[in-house]
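Please, structure for the following, as tokens.
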Amino acid sequence: MSAAQNPSQLELHPLTNLFPRMPAAEFRDFLEDIQRHGIRQPVIVHAGKIIDGRHRWEACRELGIRCPVDSYLGDASHEGLLRAVISYNLRRRHLTASQRGMLAAEALPQFEAAARERQQAAGRAHGRGQSNSSGRVRPELSGSKRARDDAAKAFEVGARSVAYAKRVRKADPELAGKVLRGEKTLRAADREVTQRQKVKVEEIGARPSDGRLRLLTRALRMVREAQLIEPKTEETVRCLAELEELVCKALDAVLATRSGC
């Protein structure tokens, strides 16, 4: 059962910033709708912080009316709240696959942090990460693969989309913003980034004698050709995305060295 609360007594949970704000024109229409019909769904709050209903809360604050709230009763861990925020928003917003892929890449650090926490907890429980008889610390598998898979699943996209989005965000944040706003598809943005990389190779005078560039560009082309072959299992898609990311990182490093960056 929801209760009304003064909007000034609430604040936003940082996780709500994972999703973009409503455009100004759309928010004005939203305000008018609330003036006519009131708040249809209560704001969801955990420990005094809003995890769902940011725009409803802002509308109540602007209109000077009390805000109906419900308490969050789910998993209160950081990962539980993260998944709840994503679920609430995906259920209500009409997002394209490209937008979801970019949002997954933006949320990736949160999932990586959750994966590290799980890994550390497992290490404490099972003795992993401890020093062995030789005195060396036993390495643990990186949580990045699991984190990317978790992010992809939460945002209902493939692991390859998350890899593309991560690459675009790193290369051109403004271009990533266009994908988030629905002005460009993720695949088109990735092709644009790839084309810029090819131009950069030409501008710095890459010669066939440069074995590293030659091998890396050939490897990238082969990986992307393999990605077009169907059918593929989800494991194959994930492995190809990881391989593509590694090749791109190596290529970026070589280009930076040659251009004096």
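Residues 129-141 have pLDDT under 50 and may be disordered. Residues 85 and 224 are 33 Å apart (CA to CA).
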